[in-house]
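Tutorial, part two.
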Amino acid sequence: MNIIDIKQNNRKRIYFFLRERLKATKQDIAYNLQLSLPTVTQNLTYLAEQDLISSESKIANKVGGRNPVAYSYIPEAKVAIGLDITRHHVKSVISDLDGNIIKYVYRRREYQRTEAYLQMLGQEVEAIILSSGVERSKILGVGIAVPGLIDHEKEYVVDGRVIDNTGMTRRGFSKYIPFDTKLIHDSDAAGYSEMNKNQTLHNACYLNLCGSIGGSVFFHDNVYLGDGLYSCEFGHLNLVPNGRRCYCGQKGCFDPYLNSEVLSQLTDGNLFTFFEKVDQGELAITSAWDDYLDNLATLVTEIRMMFGSSIIIGGDIGAYIDKHMNTLRSKVDGKSPFGEKAVKYLMPCVNKNEAIATGAARYFTQEFLESALVMPETSEFSTD
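Running the prediction step on this input gives:
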């Protein structure tokens, strides 16, 4: 490790120490990280100048004398915007460096492959910035999450039959968005958001149960994209040979049996109402829910056999699944060929609030946390 690497590493250690502790004095930092006070002081000065930390508070001195200055981590020092584009709506969020939602806007809008729709996306970005009061200089970028297979190198939708966005490019979606952008598969965004919220998991499969079925797999905290473009398309595993027609053209895929509209169509498109009626014990609704859980248990079992990792139930259904986990786990246990208990690996999602949009924004905040603390080579910072 050369001297520049040492300097950058020291700064990151100090910054992430404050991020974990939220507030600390320079003496606390020097003691816990085994760094000299001059090194700590110089790095704190730089971070404060970049408005990444604050030094406006003090901590009471228990032994008397002047109260030492306390440096505080500022999660909203940088923010990112996430867009969740579906067939029927656009959801926009602004989230901070910790993934907390600062502002959320829901817009009922049918997806259209038109110039007017692209202009609307730009207007939505401007509207959420204005309504939140966030300074434009703090915005790292805009993550755009869509259903469809994404070629990340060429930045376009290879297969977008869910909402007819095949061939659409990152540049096209962001034509009226005046910030850096990234085009993301909606299931990858949701899984990324979940892994950020659940720090105990490092290897997991995220099952995204929304208007279409998808998923993402994480190995050592990184999403696994596979050698092609079809990794984790769980909705297109086969459940019923020659069964219901799927939007992909095949028959019997899991998607037409497990997408959230299978349930919401029973209550005029309102998923919240569906689960209210489940709680009320309405016979037709509880019967449909039991059938759904049977099919979901089959899919969970197949995923477990393929990856052998933890499995997270997420998406629209994941927001309501908590009170039904025991029933689902029991059904999964009944299908297990090895007698293992699903309670050990099957869990509800932690992030139930706009996981796709927050995950799309998270790509920019995580990139900042990993690479933006690089120190100019001309810096005169000392090392230890």
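The longest strand covers residues 89-96. In part three we will examine how such features are distributed along the chain.
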